[in-house]
Amino acid sequence: MAKNTLGIEVAEIISDKCIACQICIGECPVGAIELSADGVAVIDPEVCVGCGKCFDSCPVEAVKFQKKKRIKPAEQERGVPGAGQPDYLGVAVYIETADGRGAPVSWELAGKARDLAAQLGTKVMGLLLGSNVGPVADEAIEYGCDEVHVIDDPLLSHYLPETYGKALSDLCAKLRPAIVLVGATSLGRDLAGVVATRLETGLTADCTGLYIEKETGLLLMTRPTFGGNIMATIFCQHHRPQMSSVRPRVFRMLEKDLGRKGVVTRHKMMAPAVELPEIVKFIPADDTAGTDIVSYPALVVAGRGACDPSSLPLLEELARLVGGVVACSRPVVQAGLMPYERQVGQTGKTVAPRLYIGVGVSGAVQHLVAIQGAEKIVAINSDANAPIFRVADAGIVGDYQEIVPELIAQIRKKKSNGKQ
Amino acid sequence: MHFVVCIKQVPDTAEVKIDPETNTLVRAGVESIANPYDITALEEAVRLKEKYGGKVTAVSMGPPQAESVLRQALSLGADDVVLLCDRAFAGADTLATSYTLSRAIVTLGKGNPVDLVLCGKQAIDGDTAQTGPGIATRLGLTQLTYVVDVEWVDPEKKRVQVRRKVEGGFEIINGPLPALLSVELELAKPRRASLPMLIDSVRTPVKVWDANAIEASPQLVGIKGSPTWVKAIASPQIHRAGPRWDAALGLSAAVSQALDALFSDKDFEAKFQKKWE
Lengths: 420, 277
Fold this sequence. Notes:
The structure holds two protein chains of two kinds.
Chain A: E1 12-13, H1 23-27, E2 33-35, E3 41-43, H2 53-57, E4 63-64, H3 73-77, E5 91-95, E6 97-98, E7 101-102, H4 104-120, E8 124-130, H5 134-142, E9 147-152, H6 161-175, E10 179-183, H7 186-199, E11 203-207, E12 209-212, E13 219-225, E14 230-236, E15 242-246, E16 263-266, E17 278-284, E18 298-302, H8 312-321, E19 325-328, H9 330-334, E20 355-359, H10 365-368, E21 376-381, H11 388-391, E22 394-397, H12 400-419
Parallel strand pairs in A: 5-8, 5-10, 8-9, 9-16, 10-15, 11-15, 18-19, 18-20, 20-21, 21-22
Antiparallel strand pairs in A: 1-4, 2-3, 6-7, 12-13, 13-14
Helix pairs in contact in A: 6-7, 8-12
Chain B: E1 2-6, E2 9-11, E3 17-19, E4 24-26, E5 32-34, H1 36-52, E6 55-61, H2 67-75, E7 80-84, H3 94-108, E8 116-120, H4 131-139, E9 142-154, E10 159-166, E11 169-176, E12 179-183, H5 195-203, E13 207-209, E14 228-234, E15 244-246, H6 251-262, H7 266-273
Parallel strand pairs in B: 1-6, 1-8, 6-7, 7-13, 8-12, 9-12
Antiparallel strand pairs in B: 2-5, 3-4, 9-10, 10-11
């Protein structure tokens, strides 16, 4: 182990493990750590006092330190289940509405909340805001909520961060749920940021996995970071509620249970004491410009390897045949061949079709995390080592210009056989 | 008018990967850049200044090397730049970051009240889109996210009207100043720095403020002010790994075997045959 000139055993950063989160820099009591020009933490051995705080706080074990094998303080504290916040109970889901109906992502989250609540031995609460949204409350119970708490007020007839943010924060302060889940729609992301700030609690955006840690009852949230190349697991130990936003189509909704019973409670709106913005008008998106790829049961997705305008008719033919539409990966949008609306991926759309056929898609991680909800994945690529094959149910290696026509022919044959 | 633009220095994320063998970060050749959404916000602020008059201040929180994004901001038209740099700020999550930036905006507003705060919709390394709403909420600013067009600013009546991207379309909305706009990339195409501006940007001093300078509470910044912690990182695990066939060894056989594998799930085949109904 390295010693400095004073004979102190110092800590060292293992630079290829460092994720530059800078936590150690904040923790170091003597200011011995700096972020280098290469974007990794570096410890000055002559300043280091060998206290081991950086070792204790590093989330990715990127600190080499051997004074003693210590127990990380985070783990010590987390020995007691639900330490410190026993009065925060239940898993809450924000029920987003559009045109007087519940948004599908809210029902997906209600289903996930059931799973989490079962592990915690607690209840699922739906938090519903809007104007004339009574029927949605019953639906929330059918999709898995045990309780629905409603603020139904004309002030909530249109979404504004000022009114919705206050209403949802007020409900959370009153009901004290341990966990709050919000759909990561554009509205949900706007709202969740307001509520977490008002409640001064942690919020993890765009989670793709939610788990309960057995020993502690803490919510573990995994999310893609660094543009989707890396998955981080996040937790929120000392603040409640633990909040996370989840993109649509990450979790599957439960079947509607029409016989389910639950309790609906109405709460009063307390108007915010600020001047509200005024919505002048809503302009619907131009339908011709935006094909909503997420609404199709099948997608034929063109990647960099099929980024050629002349093969588009071929892909469209395949898409029609399987009852879907053509989408694409990022390079195809960057090449100007297809509009952004058609892009699947971390920066595009998360999709969950019944059938996904990737043509010339290599399978960058950003793309793969956005298609993990697909029921079946077929990959066609000339590179046998393309990562897409690792996630595919079936793969064909070769030239797509030969494979796709053959695939079309054979599917046609299957379809006509199926009709007999 | 006083415009404040928040800029984050980010790694060029497309290049950061995990080595699947060793589970370590591969960062060779990864450069730090200014978050592209924030540069769009800066461009819009500079255009608004050119139209309505006033001053553009760019602010960034980060390590000393984040100075480079502020130099870039100067070359693109910012009048004044401030780097929020303090060990105490390190390890901040979005709650602590929005607190620190909001303290800086309050400090910048002393003697020259801030009318508009502009920031990118999200940063490309974290994609959280939480810092903008966090700042607006803390400072009680009118919150206008996902802005694709600033239609007008009325400095007399102290109002702003924008077009925002929302689910299924666009919303035209106006509200009182001071306001915070979080912007989409299509709002404005950033200009290129001219040579005189580039030269100026090197000569203009970058102010550096620590926690004391913005009167920030030590308990609310950096790691101490951050409720969320990273527990672990990993390469994304997406299991499935079905069989694959090589078309070079027989096109027709490869396709038919792949289809057989796909339709070995009879429920799935039935749904397919019924056109997914």
